[in-house]
Design brief:
The complex is a heterodimer of chains A (about 130) and B (about 150). Chain A has 1 helix and 9 strands. Chain A has about 130 residues and is mainly beta. Chain B has a single domain, classed as Immunoglobulin-like (Sandwich), CATH 2.60.40. The longest helix of chain B is centred in the first third of the chain and has 15 residues. Classes of the chains: A mainly beta (about 130), B mainly beta (about 150).
C-alpha cells in the first residue's frame, strides 16, 4: 500500500534537460492536487491563462505530460508598469503505472484549472476477498 | 503589509519588492520552495497609460461571484475566497499543492480612478480590471498667453 503514493511523483531530475523549449519563454510548473479513490486518480492543475484548446496531454511510455500554452496579453497602448508574475507556458510530467486504464482518461478545463480523471484498470481496483469457512 | 506602493510615473522598484517578486517566480518554477502562496495573493500585473490602468491578476479556479472588487480614490481592493472541491468518502490526497481560503489584496494605484467606470472580467482563471483615470486627476495643459 505504501508504494501506491509513489505512482505520481513528478520527474524533477529529467524535465529541464529533456524538454527544453525552442522558444525563449519561461515554462512554469503548475501546482497540482492529486486525489485517489477506489475508482480513479484525479489530477487538478492550476494553469491560469490557458484555455481548453491550448492544452496538450501526452501519455507515452508510462509518462504523462501536461502542456499548457498561454496566449500573450498586452493591453493596447499601455505600458507594463509593475509585474509580480510572468507570462509563460506550463509543463509538468508524472510517471503513471499500468494500473491506469489509458483509454479512458478524461480531461476538462475550467477557469484556468485542468482536471484529469485517470480511471483505474480492473486489476488495480481493490478487491475484497472473502474467506470461506471450511 | 497589505499596501503596495505604486506612485507616479517615475516609480522605482523597491528592492524588497523585487526580492519578493523573484521569490514568487522561484516558487512558480519549483513548487515547494519560495513564499507561501497566499502571501500577497493574488499576484498582479499593472499596465497603464496617461488616462487608464489595466490590472490583471491570476486567480485560477474561482467562481467569479466569489471575487469582490472595490475602488476608493486610488486604492484598489481585490478580495475573495477560493473553495476547492471536498474529498469524497474514501478518497485521499496523494499530493496537495493548491491552496484554498480567503484572500485580500490592497493596491495603491498611480492615480485616482473613476470608481463607477471600473470594469472587470474573469476569463481562463485571469481577472482583468480596467480603471479609467478620474477626470479631475488628468494632467492639464496650460497654455501660455503672450501679450
Amino acid at each position: 500500500m505504501a508504494e501506491k503514493g509513489k505512482q505520481m511523483e513528478p520527474r524533477k531530475e529529467q524535465a529541464p534537460v529533456a524538454q527544453e523549449s525552442m522558444k525563449n519563454r519561461p515554462v512554469y510548473v503548475p501546482r497540482v492536487d492529486i486525489i485517489e479513490d477506489n475508482e480513479a486518480i484525479v489530477l487538478m492543475a492550476d494553469m491560469p491563462g490557458v484555455d481548453e484548446g491550448n492544452v496538450d496531454i501526452v501519455l507515452e511510455k508510462g509518462v504523462l505530460t501536461i502542456n499548457g500554452r498561454v496566449d500573450d496579453y498586452f493591453p493596447e497602448d499601455h505600458r507594463l508598469m509593475y509585474a509580480e508574475y510572468g507570462t509563460g507556458d506550463y509543463r509538468r510530467s508524472f510517471t503513471v503505472t499500468d494500473a491506469i486504464d489509458h483509454n479512458r482518461i478524461e480531461a476538462t478545463m475550467k477557469n484556468g484549472v485542468l482536471k484529469l480523471v485517470l480511471p483505474k484498470g480492473e486489476q488495480a481496483k481493490p478487491k475484497k476477498i472473502s474467506v470461506k469457512t471450511a | 503589509m497589505w499596501m503596495t506602493g505604486l506612485r507616479g510615473l517615475d516609480w522605482m522598484p523597491d528592492i524588497w519588492q523585487e526580492f519578493d517578486r523573484m521569490q514568487r517566480e522561484a516558487g512558480r518554477l519549483f513548487p515547494g520552495i519560495g513564499t507561501n502562496y497566499y502571501e500577497n495573493f493574488p499576484a498582479i500585473n499593472l499596465w497603464m497609460n496617461e488616462n487608464n490602468i489595466v490590472v490583471t491578476a491570476e486567480i485560477p479556479g474561482i467562481d467569479p461571484a466569489d471575487i469582490d472588487i472595490s475602488v476608493e480614490g486610488d486604492i484598489l481592493q481585490i478580495s475573495g475566497s477560493r473553495k476547492l472541491d471536498e474529498l469524497d468518502e474514501g478518497a485521499k490526497f496523494l499530493r496537495q499543492e493548491r491552496s484554498q481560503g480567503g484572500f485580500r489584496r490592497k493596491v495603491r494605484l498611480p492615480f485616482r480612478v473613476e470608481s463607477d467606470k471600473v470594469e472587470a472580467q474573469y476569463e481562463k482563471g485571469v481577472l482583468k480590471i480596467n480603471l479609467p483615470r478620474l477626470e479631475d486627476d488628468k494632467p492639464k495643459k496650460i497654455s501660455i498667453k503672450s501679450e
